[in-house]
Design a protein that fits this description.
Elements lengths: L6 E3 L17 H11 L2 E3 L1 H4 L11 E3 L2 H8 L3 E4 L6 E5 L5 H18 L3 E6 L6 E5 L5 E5 L2 H13 L4 E7 L7 H7 L8 H15 L3 E6 L23 H9 L3 E4 L8 E2 L6 E5 L6 H8 L4 E4 L20 H5 L1 E4 L2 H12 L25
Parallel strand pairs: 1-2, 1-13, 2-3, 5-6, 5-9, 9-10, 13-14, 14-15
Antiparallel strand pairs: 4-11, 4-12, 7-8
């Protein structure tokens, strides 16, 4: 049996990716790459499907800031049999909506056997606002981030080893942006603010965290895009977060003594990302370490940060050689499998480049 080839799958949040720009619509991609690699590391934007989820021991659920810290070599990932999930609720969530979320916790305990608790409500609203940048990508702001951090610190002190956050997001039931998103043509307006919340907690607490927004239910529409359907199945997006966190890896400082169950960036064999979104820290760190980056052309987004735009051409031969272009995620999975088997993916394409001339032996001075 061939050894796994640890692979990172990145699909950035809030940039309207064709795959991964909606709730859980990149899960089929993650499952395929997990099978091809035997070990996949990805983040909640890829793996969260609202009321739907997919549990797979080969897939490691790692929040985005933590993924960057892992790629920098600052943290290693340590496997975990079961996390004790503390749940942090925003005080702005009204009583009926809060009850729906509390019932999710009961259901997860009774049906999935998850270890959940303690549960805490912030001492005041955290004040989430959502915004859209000039490019069309989403971002957000927190009016009272100290309330979020204070509650997170209390949960960690009370024994939580991972934290699920549920914040009250503004309802925009009649907005044209929301309707476009539901019909498959818009940007996830919540994604930027969600990332801000989880990044802050992970950075400050050093434990796995993920976020689920609390929103008023929407009236059903006939034109709903299949990629947006997972978000409309229930009253809450919390189930996928609880499942993802339940066995999420712990974070260990790379300066600590190495343990056999830990995974480090030096073991990663490939990074898969949209071809137009190659400017993130994990991709740049991978190229610096000469880890192959597979750029998927079919996953279009609002960004156009491609290899060409970054100047990775003939003048930068080493970087160019480490960027592999795949037309689709199916082709990317084939490349990962080739790398896992020790096959140069470029040998699978035709025509093959003519071998370069041998290097001249330097004469002695």
């Amino acid at each position: 049996m061939i050894k796994p080839l640890p692979t990172i799958l990145i699909i950035p949040t809030g940039i309207a990716c064709e795959q991964g720009g909606f709730a859980g619509d990149a899960l089929p991609v993650a499952r395929l790459l997990a099978a091809a690699s035997g070990c996949l590391i990805s983040h909640p934007n890829v793996l969260n499907g609202a009321s739907l989820y997919w549990s797979d021991r080969r897939i490691h659920y790692v929040e985005g800031w933590a993924l960057d810290a892992f790629a920098r070599g600052y943290w290693r990932l340590s496997s975990c049999r079961a996390q004790r999930i503390g749940v942090l609720f925003d005080a702005a969530i009204e009583a009926t909506l809060l009850l729906r979320h509390l019932q999710v916790l009961d259901a997860a305990r009774a049906t999935l056997g998850l270890d959940i608790g303690p549960v805490l409500v912030t001492n005041g609203p955290i004040g989430v606002s959502v915004c859209q940048g000039a490019s069309g990508s989403s971002w957000g702001e927190l009016e009272h981030p100290h309330r979020l951090l204070q509650a997170g610190e209390q949960l960690k002190a009370a024994g939580a080893t991972a934290i699920a956050v549920v914040a009250r997001f503004p309802d925009e039931l009649d907005s044209s942006q929301l309707q476009a998103y539901r019909c498959g043509a818009g940007v996830d307006a919540l994604a930027g603010a969600e990332a801000l919340i989880s990044h802050l907690l992970v950075r400050e607490l050093g434990i796995p965290c993920a976020h689920a927004p609390a929103l008023a239910p929407l009236a059903p529409i006939n034109e709903l895009d299949p990629r947006a359907a997972a978000e409309e199945l229930g009253h809450t997006f919390l189930p996928c977060v609880l499942v993802g966190l339940s066995q999420a890896p712990n974070f260990q400082l790379a300066t600590n003594p190495w343990q056999p169950d830990e995974l480090a960036i030096e073991q990663v064999g490939a990074v898969v990302a949209p071809a137009g979104a190659l400017g993130g820290e994990t991709v740049l760190q991978a190229l610096q370490r000469q880890i192959p980056v597979i750029a998927v052309e079919s996953n279009k987004s609002l960004l156009q940060v491609s290899a060409a735009a970054l100047g990775w051409g003939e003048a930068d031969h080493e970087t160019k050689n480490n960027v592999l272009h795949a037309s689709s995620y199916s082709e990317a999975a084939g490349m990962v499998l080739a790398l896992r088997e020790g096959i140069n993916p470029k040998s699978l394409h035709r025509p093959l480049a003519i071998a370069s001339k041998p290097l001249a032996i330097a004469s002695k001075p």
